[in-house]
């Protein structure tokens, strides 16, 4: 098996970003979790309170021989609204911020370049932050693969996720699993 790479991305509700990346060719795992806050091992309830400093995020594991980090970042910046500060739609608070957490200087440079590439596609300035790597805390088990199960019965997910998946299929057709 070839070497895997990871990227940690926060684009609002982790159920929504996880659903997008589970459909991307070359992505071998997507884990929902929390990063960037001050509380060790936070719970979903704590993070939702907005008091921990954590963002809802995903850790994307991918095969760089199949999909590049640049392509992962382009998909990320196209499938959520990176111009909304501390929110995504009706999800409001720093836990829903748009952020990227580089593992090293090469990822930092790639993330900066991705923001520059994406800016012409958005009418307002991109506010996605590039934050220092921090401890990663996996979300509770019931959040993992949420769209494939409970999400199919969740009105919020039914309203938000299908348009993201349609944009993925339209804009990145060559990178979508069959």
TrEMBL record:
Keywords: Oxidoreductase
Family: Belongs to the MsrA Met sulfoxide reductase family.
NCBIfam families: msrA
Reaction(s) catalysed (UniProt annotation): [thioredoxin]-disulfide + L-methionine + H2O = L-methionine (S)-S-oxide + [thioredoxin]-dithiol; L-methionyl-[protein] + [thioredoxin]-disulfide + H2O = L-methionyl-(S)-S-oxide-[protein] + [thioredoxin]-dithiol
EC assignment: 1.8.4.11
Any GO molecular function: peptide-methionine (S)-S-oxide reductase activity
Recorded superkingdom: Bacteria
Function: Has an important function as a repair enzyme for proteins that have been inactivated by oxidation. Catalyzes the reversible oxidation-reduction of methionine sulfoxide in proteins to methionine.
Entry-linked InterPro entries: Met_Sox_Rdtase_MsrA_dom, Met_Sox_Rdtase_MsrA_sf
Top-rank EC class of the record's enzyme: oxidoreductase
Alphabetical list of PANTHER family matching this protein: PEPTIDE METHIONINE SULFOXIDE REDUCTASE, PEPTIDE METHIONINE SULFOXIDE REDUCTASE MSRA 2
Active site residues of this protein: 13
Domain Peptide methionine sulphoxide reductase MsrA: 6-157
Name this protein carries in UniProt: Peptide methionine sulfoxide reductase MsrA
